[in-house]
Amino acid sequence: MTAAPDSAQKFDASRAGEYEQQSRIALAGYDACHDLSACMLAAALGSGRAARVLVAGAGGGAREVVTTAALEPSWHFTAVDPSEPMLALARARLEESGLDARTEVVLGTVGDLPDGETFDAATLIGVLHHLPGDEAKRAILRDIARRLRPGAPLVLAGNHQPYASQPLLLAAWGERWRQQGAGPDEVEAKRARILQGADPPHSEQAVADLLRESGFAPPLRFFSSLFWGAWIARRSPSAT
Q1: SUPFAM superfamilies from the xrefs (predicted)?
Q2: Distance CA 85, CA 88 (A)
Q3: Sign of torsion over alpha carbons 145, 150, 152, 153
Q4: pTM for the full predicted model
């Protein structure tokens, strides 16, 4: 679930090793979000048909691929991530699940893919809030839009709202870690880390604006957990 090269630097080998466990604590409903994302794509495309799916930011276990492939055995995937340690973890999970034959794994960004490639659907989960500034966010969304057929669905998920702007949600996020056994010092360290380490869109409307500016129709939210949201949006026919 990592993003552009500069942002990917923080996803080194040590962070990759703890990613799967840490993500399930930081995001209450981690597995439910991925399960519903697969269901939304299947509902949007129609189950039982063949499809090619672009998974942007697939590192950290390729959960998007594993979950969706179990639901749709005729789908094939292109999994892209700029972090070698995170992508290595994704490769391992794909091999364990027997999905390596159905998945092309690419070290790099969506922009590195050939412009001529066209996908029936895409996911961008846990990436956008790691990209600094709106232009970087628009850039990856535009790169995805250019590789989707008109009307193709995108599942976008990540944190939105500045963390410090919602002190109650931030406090509840800390309690989530305490609930999982973290002591006071560890909770404070993790709270400091989230405040310094990401740049989420400032609101749900900001998410919708970024999508519109990048070639997508208005999104539909289907999941929420504290700062996290998940939406589905279709590529606009007029997107270029």
Answers
A1: S-adenosyl-L-methionine-dependent methyltransferases
A2: 5
A3: positive
A4: 0.91
